[in-house]
Amino acid sequence: MTSKPGPDTTADGHHVIIHGRRWRATDPAVPADVGERLRGHLMAARRAVAAARRHEDSRAERAARDRVQTAKVALGERGVPWWEQSADERRTRWTRGLHALDT
């Protein structure tokens, strides 16, 4: 089985290019198992946003959007750019984010 190639990246690896738009890349230092769990939380939170919008539940939507933000920050896709953080700061970022989403 072959996997499809990932998106194009900028020369410095800090961003991916999708449909001509530049987006911050996931921190490559995030361990694979942690990244998988964070992406699982992210996708669940995105589904929760959609469900809350369908039900016009603004409180549930806000809570789901907050979970999306937590996952994106933990992955290094939002917040302080991962390439400007030390290795300890990066590890702390994804550890805290995963803990917050797991609880």
Order of helices and strands: EEEHHH
Measured as a percent range, the helix fraction is 55-70%
Q: How is the biggest beta sheet arranged?
A: 3 strands, antiparallel
Spatial strand sequence of the major β-sheet: 1-2-3
Please indicate the percent range of residues in DSSP E strands (runs of 2 or more). 5-15%
Question: Averaging pLDDT over every residue, what do you get?
Answer: 96
Global outline? globular
Regions with little confidence, pLDDT below 50 for 5+ residues? none
Determine the number of helices (DSSP H or I, runs of at least 4 residues). Answer: 3
Number of extended strands: 3
User: Distance N terminus to C terminus?
Assistant: 36 Å
Oligomer description = single chain
3D architecture notes:
With 103 residues, the protein is mainly α. It has a three-stranded antiparallel sheet with strand order 1-2-3, with no helix packed on it. Strand 2 and strand 3 form a beta hairpin. Helix 1 packs antiparallel against helix 2, helix 1 packs across helix 3 and helix 2 runs antiparallel to helix 3. The protein is globular. The relative contact order is 0.16. The mean pLDDT is 96.
